[in-house]
Amino acid sequence: MEVSAKLPTPVRSGLWREIIRGGRPRLILTTLVFIPLCLIWIYPFLWMVSAAFKTNDEIFAGPGLIPPSLQLDNFVRAWDQASIGRYFINTSLITLATVAIVLLSTSMIGYVLGRYRFRGKRLIIALFITTVFIPEGYTIIPIFELVNLLHLNNSLWGVILAESGGAHVLFILLFAGFFSQLPKDLEEAAVVDGAGFVRVFWQVMLPLAMPVIATATIMQFLGSWNSFFLPLVLTLSRPEIRTLGVGMFAFQGEYFSDWAGMAAAATISQIPVIAVFVLLQRYFVEGIAGAVKQ
To answer: Exposure of 83 by Cβ count < 10 A (0-12 exposed, 13-18 middle, 19+ buried)?
Structure first.
């Protein structure tokens, strides 16, 4: 505002004319391109929510999103008859415990890799990165054997340890990138006050990493909440401890599939995911941008 006030009136009007000429068509074009892409992207989700309020016959009557009538019985059937309520509790316990364990382990590893220099550091980072290229199907057998040796098979703790026991390379790199940018004066001041390694990490450094914590929380919450393969293998003989992803099989029979009930159960299962993302979304981009900023 101060710069534009010092410019002559013809110059200011010329600048505004250029902005209008160059900016508005670009904005209109961008909007016209991205609105259809966004609609295509969210259509499956909208269709799922719409199908939750329809009958099985109405679901396949057409691609319309507005249900002729609201079939609230689908949600009652999903919650009671298909035991979605029990699966919801199991999934909540597994997800919350997994998120807590993953945040604690990845933040500590990222802190060491980001703040300290030691021999073999690059080799350790390279080994972490190589685990990204290992398919999940190749690790299911050793994970199952390890859980079985710990006598935790067919238990919630077995699923929690299996879900939280991965390398989680992305979270480690995010924490390492964030901690590496913090000034050393913070640690030095804490050490002068008598703080040790654990206290410096827990009371000084970790609270500053809230954007990365929120980012890791959202991503791990999504992964654990929607996990299917590991809970399926580890809860085969105990249907009462299944998660929501595995419990969806209750709507699919040999000769008939309750698509309306399945859509209602899927809609219920996505409510916590949406709530968590809405609460932590303002930290999400900050965590990604802050961790990769050089």
So the answer is: middle
Query: Rg for the chain (alpha carbons), in Å?
Result: 25
* Whole-angstrom distance, CA of residue 164 vs CA of residue 90: 16
Residue 227 CA neighbour count, 13 Å, CB half: 28
In our burial notation (b when 16+ CB lie closer than 10 A, e otherwise), range 240-277 reads: ebbbbbbbbebbeeeeeebbbbbbbbbbbbbebeeebe
> For 252, which DSSP code?
B
Global model pTM greater than 0.85:
no
pLDDT per residue as tens digits for the range 207-265: 888 888 988 998 899 889 988 888 988 888 888 888 988 887 766 665 567 788 888 88
Residue in the block written with tokens 């190589």: 130
CATH classification of 74-292 is 3.40.1190.20, yes or no? no
The Cα 148–Cα 266 span in angstroms is 31
Going 12 to 18 to 21 to 25, the CA torsion angle's sign is: negative
Residue-wise pLDDT tens digits, 184-209: 888 888 888 888 888 888 988 998 88
Instruction: Show me where the domains of the chain are located.
Output: 2-51, 74-292
Cβ-contact 125, 109 below 8 angstroms: no
Look-up of token digits 């008598």: 194
Backbone φ and ψ for 242, nearest 5 degrees, come out as -70, 160
